[in-house]
Amino acid sequence: MLIVLCRALKVPEIAQAAYSILCASSSIGFLLTALEPHLSQFNLSPFMMGEYSDVCIMERLPSAFTGLPSPGVMFVVNGGSYAMTAPLFGMVCDKLAPPSKVNQLGATAILISFLLLGPAPFLPFATNLPVCIAALVIHGWGIGAVLVSSFAAAHCGAIEKGGFPDDIGTYGMVSGLWTSVFALGESCPPPARGQSFHVLLRGREVLAWNGLSLLA
After folding, report:
1. d(CA 101, CA 50)
2. Do the Cβ atoms of 198 and 34 come closer than 8 Å?
3. pTM of the shown model
4. Domains of the chain (ranges, CATH numbers)
5. Is 162 helix (H, G, I), strand (E, B) or coil?
6. Helix, strand, coil fractions of the chain, as percent rounded to 5
7. Nearest Cα residue to 24 out of 208, 152, 184
């Protein structure tokens, strides 16, 4: 299986798709760490930001589940946007535009979302909640475009350029590679933690990361 994956990664379309997935999923991991400290300046309610409950709402749950985190609305905005737009991007890749164009659109959307979320130092406005919400929605669009188009591009590349057969085995190989690279990107450790982490959203680190994403 390792030999098959190495052979697949030698196909330019598959390697490029893997890099796109890595960048997109790492942006999700970045937000999971940076978003809460960044939005704490707005003093949002636990409903918006999430909280740790001291009591089990469902009495039948084992006591081990007491204290599990409850995700806030702000942490599901980009996920909801992704869930709603991913099927649309799938249809676009199938019928209207090549996956490479959709991938470029998604990478650009992710870049714009981070520039707005900070905001970037060169933008003429301060951090505000409506723009942050809009940025998270745009981020979800970008994630949907990149992840869906990358799978389509990797599958087409495997068959047309890599010489893999058009069968369930190739689908499984591409799906496994997609899942592995996604998990790798999402688990990449961010460079810092703590309440001061939100400053990274305004710094050169995010601008550099956006440049790498746009290359995808």
Report:
1. 36
2. yes
3. 0.78
4. 9-215 (1.20.1250.20)
5. coil
6. 75, 5, 25
7. 184
| Alpha carbons 107 and 23: distance in angstroms, whole number | 9
Compute the distance between CA of residue 106 and CA of residue 211 in angstroms, rounded to an integer.
13
Contact (Cβ atoms closer than 8 angstroms) between residue 185 and residue 24 = yes
Contact 31, 213 (CB under 8 A): no
Residue 70, classed as helix, strand or coil, is: strand
Residue 26 CB contacts under 8 Å (≥ 6 apart), including other chains: 185, 186, 188, 209
Between CA 138 and CA 76 the distance in angstroms is 13
Query: pLDDT tens digits for 159-192?
Result: 988 888 988 888 888 998 999 999 888 877 555 4
Distance of CA 174 to the CA centre of its chain: 19
DSSP 190: P
**How far is residue 22's CA from residue 36's CA, in Å, rounded to a whole number?**
23
Question: What is the Cα–Cα distance from 53 to 48, expressed in whole angstroms?
Answer: 14
